[in-house]
Amino acid sequence: MTAPYLKLTEISKSFPGVKALNAISLEAYSGEVLGLIGANGAGKSTLMNVLGGVVRMDSGSIEIGGKVVDIRDPLDASARGIAFVHQEMALLPTMTIAENMYIASFPLNKVRLIDSGKAVQNCKEALDSLGFSLSPKAKIKELGAGDRQMVEVARALLGDPRILIFDEPTSSLSEKEKNRLFEVIRKLKAEGKTVIYITHFLDEVFTLCDRAAVLRNGEVAGTLRVEDMTYEAVVKLMLGKSELTPERGASGARRSAGAAVLKVSGLCRTGVFKDVSFELRSGEVVGLWGLLGSGRTELVRSVAGLDPVDGGEIAVNSGGALKRIRPREARSWIGLVTENRREDGLLLASSVRANISLASLPDLLSKLWPFIDEKREKTDAAALVKRLDIKISDMEQSVGTLSGGNQQKVILSRWLRKNPPVLILDEPTRGLDVGAKGEIQEMIVKLARDGAAIMVISSEIEEIMSVSDRYLVIDRGRIVAELDSDASKERLLAAALGAGQGAKP
Amino acid sequence: MKHAESPAAKAAAFLREYGFIAILLAVIVGFSVSTNSFMSMANITGLLHSSVPLAIWAAGLALVVMTGSLDISIGSVAFFANAVGVILMVRQGVSPAIAVPATIAIGALCGLINGIVTVYLKVNPLITTMGAMFIYRGLALQLTGSRVISVPQGLRAFGNFRLGPVYTDILIGLAFLVVMHVVHKKTPFGRHVMALGNNKETADRVGVRVKAVGLSCFVLSGLCAGIGGLFSVFQIGAVTLQMGTGLEFTAIAAIVIGGISLMGGEGSIFPNYVLGILTLGIIENGLNHLGASPYVYPFVRGGIILVAMYADSLKRNGKPRVLLTE
After folding, report:
1. Which of A136, A225, A284, B140 could form a disulfide with B83 if both were Cys (CB 3.0 to 4.6 A apart)?
2. Interface test with B, best of A101, A103, A115, A120 (most B CBs within 10 A)
3. A215 vs B270: CA distance, rounded Å
4. CA-CA distances (angstroms) from residue A91 to A95, B195, B203?
5. Which residue is closest to A91 within chain B, CA to CA?
């Protein structure tokens, strides 16, 4: 092969307290698709932000086409021929495709007014060249996710870039839309562009990429040609040698689980998840393990009755027997602690007391009917504060002034106050420091020991391993494996990466 | 390959977008049948004539609303700007050739201040412009000494001047709205207004200068208030103490009735905004011809707003149209 078109040498970047990139060296050639793989926090985003001019590197050099360049800001990056297609699409829904494509640079006529005819014509040509038959006058809000993604791609191609970076572009696409996107990427490759493709999904790397670089803890753990690649090799690179021994965390030996309290069978939601069945028993913690974009959050939202489902059954234990309930009723049986505690869960300006009692106000009415029994509210809340060891100076302290760990405990207290038979925790320790993390994890295990049925979602494999009694592995909306507590890290990771589906030729 | 825009689909989309046109036509027919004076040339030109000041006054506000923001100070801004202008002419003997542009400039300046406070100091626009509403009105009352000030005779004549059967200000108003329409539909600025109304963060990411566009809309809103106020003053012949009182809500009503969403990112000058203004004018004029009590007007106006908002909500929750054809 000829000289690399893009060459990164010894790039390092530190943020306060973290070394995000540590002497990363990477090469990408014209006419190739380079896959970029790595666990969360491995440094993929930081590296791309350096290339995109969003973040400045501390040291190292970037060469494009054999020349050392300095990328100061996003404009600089696009002037060097680097374009991005982001996972989160930057589109304006009430406006047309043509308007979205040219919003920053409309073609103007002689009197400096927008030449709509030309914009539509150019847009049509751009879409056609991607083999894509959408009307440029269609509004974005009328398009599905796949078509929107194509508009993003078309816009990224406007400046005729030489290097295209796709950041998890398939996370919201259907199989068909994905294949269409792959066709486009292959075409770009054939035109001699350099494509960097960031993904969680190994099978996409197998079908699309020529080579793949695996990042781990801000370093390049290895670069593989796709022909030489196996799931095992990639998982090994992602985890690193030091972590290859299976480990058991705080939960210790498997606890004995009680009766089933939740039975989900054949649950599906079109385009989101399919045919999901599982049971939760009292006294156990089940880890729902899957990568970002695997549909794990969507699944638990539907199970908890927050989002609609298209089919399947949910049954809960009512008086000793499993009783089928309507999906919308699930919210009174299942407590869901969402990953955005600040946005979805807490009333930040309200007191600890009010936050704890929020979900169970009907139980707190005094005999003088419409009034809240504040005495009981207070004593109940105080008992929970003590039980979970929440550090506050006063029950009336506003939740916004608490640390993240204590805020999370306040939410947990709210659900314990309501005491639903099933508790689902989506990323319960996200954004917490190590100490608070450990505390919350211990608390989860303790709650299960006291008889609760708990499902935990976490992006951190160590966390899910430290609390779970068994695992459900989800990949693109399907439960692909059910593993026991003695499953090893490699096993879990391989299952979530799609090894269970036999995608590797 | 063809795109799914058959005539029938187009008609359906048009009805969904402008369904209230049907209602408006029904109302017009109703008034024409039940009174013999409504459908007369004199009444129609009179109706348009009396709609001109509001139509100009709130045109800038329409753009502000399209960015997803709000400006309820336009009534007071017009009062203040015109009070200064008329006082310059009447008491200081300044020529209208200077006083009229000064009035417009003061309107724009008031809008600039509103814009700076909202866009740069990040105060909620409703609060900013409510404060501004009180401040400018207070200033104007102070200036006029709470007295009605009449404008010179020549200018008064201008406000009611006719070319044949048509009032000249109808033509000027129409030209003004056409310019606003072109600015909105045909300039990058206009598209950027819509981009802000969609999502400011996204607009920023795709290269729109979000703050500059937001600020410009407020300036335009003040500018339009100044000009609309001038037309009103020329028609009435004086700056009255009630000038612009409650006008902000009439203006928002017209905008909403026309189908411009208060969420931003939707709507146009022609036909949305203009139809909204005309609907209000026609209904009040028609009720007048029916001999209805003036106290009925607010009731009817409120009813129309609720219906318009319901239509907006239906539109929002409707199923997306699929345009891709294989």
Report:
1. B140
2. A103
3. 55
4. 9, 9, 8
5. B202
Domain count, chain B: 1
CATH number at A6-243:
3.40.50.300
Is residue B128 a contact partner of residue B222, using CB atoms and an 8 Å limit?
no
Q: Considering only B21-30, B213-222, B225-234, B306-315, which range has the smallest mean pLDDT?
A: B306-315
CB spacing of B191 vs A103 below 8 angstroms:
yes
The residue whose two tokens read 């045909």 is: B186
Neighbours of A311 (CB within 10 A): 12
- Chain A segment 21-80 residues within 8 A of B by beta carbon are none
Q: Find the DSSP H helices in A141-262.
A: 145-157, 175-190, 202-208, 231-239
Q: Does A128 reach chain B within 8 Å, measured CB to CB?
A: no
Provide block-wise average pLDDT over 10 residues at a time, chain A (505 residues).
87 85 94 88 86 91 93 88 85 93 90 92 90 89 86 90 90 80 93 92 89 91 90 81 44 64 92 90 92 85 89 88 86 85 80 91 81 90 89 88 86 88 89 79 88 90 89 90 88 78 40
**ipTM surpassing 0.85, yes or no?**
no
Does A135 contact B at CB distance below 8 Å? Answer: yes
Residue B14 in domain: no
Out of B191, B322, B324, name the one closest to residue A99 (CB).
B191
User: Is residue B323 assigned to a domain?
Assistant: no
Separation in Å, CA of A453 to nearest CA in chain B: 37
Kindly list the residues from chain B whose CB atom is less than 8 angstroms away from the CB atom of residue A114.
185-188, 191
Per CATH, which fold does A255-333+420-505 belong to? Answer: Rossmann fold (3.40.50)
Looking up residue B180, the CATH number of its domain turns out to be 1.10.3470
Assigned token pair, B130: 């409510």
Q: Is residue B43 part of a domain?
A: no
Please report the pLDDT score of residue A499 as a whole number. Answer: 64
Q: What's the token pair of residue B245?
A: 């009182």
Per-residue pLDDT tens over the stretch B254-299: 998 888 988 899 899 999 999 999 999 999 899 989 888 888 888 8
Within 8 A of A95 by CB-CB distance, chain B residues are: 191, 194-195, 198, 265
Q: How far is CA B235 from CA A212, A335, B160, B222, B316, in A?
A: 75, 65, 6, 20, 40
CB contact under 8 A, A94 and B188: no
pLDDT digit string, tens, across residues B74-106: 999 999 999 999 999 999 999 999 999 999 999
- A103 touching chain B per CB within 8 A: yes
Instruction: Say if the Cβ atoms of B202 and A91 lie within 8 Å.
Output: yes
User: Could you tell me the residue range of the domain that residue B167 belongs to?
Assistant: 49-281+294-317
Residues in A touching B186 (Cβ below 8 Å): 113-114, 116
The residues of chain A that CATH labels 3.40.50.300 are 6-243, 255-333+420-505
In this predicted structure, what is the pLDDT of residue B5?
56
Q: And the tokens for B3?
A: 């795109």
Is residue B28 assigned to a domain? no
